[in-house]
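Z., the sequence and structure:
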Amino acid sequence: MKLVLRFGVGCCLTAALAVQTLSSAVAADGFPQPYDTEKEDSATRLPPTEAAAKFRTPAGFHVDVFAAEPDVANPIAVTWDTRGRLWVAEDFTYAERPTKFELGLRDRVLIFTDRDGDGHFDERQVFLDNAQRLTSIEVGRGGVWLMCPPQLLFVPDRDGDDRPDGPAEPVLEGFKIPAESFHNFANGLRWGPDGWLYGRCGASAPGTIRRADAPEAFQVPLRGGVWRYHPVHKQFEALCHGTTNPWGHDWDRHGEGFFINTVNGHLWHLIPGAHLRRPHTINANPLVYEPVEMHADHWHWDTGKSWSDSRKSTGEHDRRGGGHAHVGMTIYLGQQWPEDYRGRLFTLNQHGRRMNVERLEREGSGYVGRHDPDMLHAGDPWFRGVEVTYGPDGGVYLIDWSDTGECHESTGVHRNSGRIYKVTYGRPAPQTPPDLTRMDGAALVALHSENNEWLARAARRELTDRAARGDDVQAETAALTEQLGSAADPVQRLRAVWTLHALGATSKPQLATLLEDSDEHVRTWGVRLLTDNLPLDTATGEARATPGTVDKELLAALAGLARNDASPLVRLALASTLQRLPPADRPPLAAALLSRAEDAGDHNLPPLVWYGLIALADQQPEQLVPLAVDARWPQVRNWIARRCAELAGKRPELIAELLAK
């Protein structure tokens, strides 16, 4: 294998590293040798090729070694660039209990290139080797994004030569570092279809997020769940709160987000503004009376026993899926695997050492995950999958931390092992990875109609990268506008509007036409994008974003959609949008939603509408009584009555009026 080493910015290893920093000094020739504290004898670990051969797979599938130690160790996260290269974050500073910061260790970012497309890397480069607490990586918009709690960092590489142009630039700060645990860190950087940078955070690592360059700009509480950051507008949102430890998310072909989690339910629909079930922490706002429950009809462990018992992954735990801990997730939208797998959700079950498979089906306003047969059972007792992703040719890559413990690492850390496996169906002919940086704009627009989602997403990112560096993309914008207006396939229309919006090239009249589209998913995204610039009020009880102003014409259009649209998915987007409106503008939209009797028993809609009313319940509770009188949803009526009863000592007229009416 050809080996190329390129070292990035250096590191100043002083006590100042306890506060996140990256230095611009030149790196030393030698990288600190990681040391092992894992108590288990490493002789029990299977060699990489033998471990690959020991995977139990469905007929026709093959597992090969893309990379393994010593070329990669402690891989914790990966991403793809638009040249078809795999970027890998190595985390050596992940410490065992009791938590201690290891000044002698550093984290690294590697770039792996498979030039001939044979499923084995040909070139390995070191982009930088001086990060600390590195949990995630993403590339795009002129550089590399690193999640290194307590900060989100940006390392510029605007000329694209795979060398940092300068020191890392702090973007966000305030991501808490738990004192006794590392597994709930902020993690999961990934570009969303809307051009925002998404991430995740565990509920036991709460923080207050602020801009590093302007801390007074906002102070947004983060209490677990999923968040997003806009790289141009510098806006941050805590999209949803709760769960335990989300460590994997992706979007389906219609742009619906999903994420996986441990302990209290493995599968969740990413609904902006949702407060989701949390088992170990209390919601910061006491007015969140009931959370949204998980979006699956099954568990992957025996709930008749404790979740901690499922670590054994035996008996009923094994039969149901292997255990409570899920790490890494992808919704397969490539073309190399058989068509039956397309659109399935895949997540790695840590204790079960396998891949769980979910079939996503529409149900009411959202989705429900149904359990398909598990696949890719590992034979190596050291297999600890932390991420799964499909590449440009449709092959699926499994990222293996390679250790005997779990996320708590109470038995120590083995820092000198790690594997990346590639899973293919059959033995496909080698395909040279596509290099979108060499394509012209017309070719990138054409990729928006490709069935391979990897290519469509990469084309969007390449166009936004070009726009970010000042290239003229007017011709591409015009072509995408034509696609949006003429494409028969709603997925192609969605891809066009996502890229236009990410480029900042959509207008309010253009987005308003989406509300009349024949496809419910396009109408749903019309609602979302029309209100995308309005900050989300996540009702945490500690701090709220300042809702933006909304013109009366748009408010009327949204309320009309709530009364008349046949799709409950569209109504769910409207329920989320309540939290983006000034409180005084919320009652008409809420009343329109509450008038739809068919949604009274929906899994998501009643709580989402209530979360949108919390600002009124807190500031203008008199607005709730008329809503309760006309509401067709008993749940929301009960929550309004509960709030009026709570205020009986201060505002007795509220409960009296409610009872009278």
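The mean pLDDT is 91. The first strand starts at residue 61 and ends at 68.

Let me know what you think.
H.
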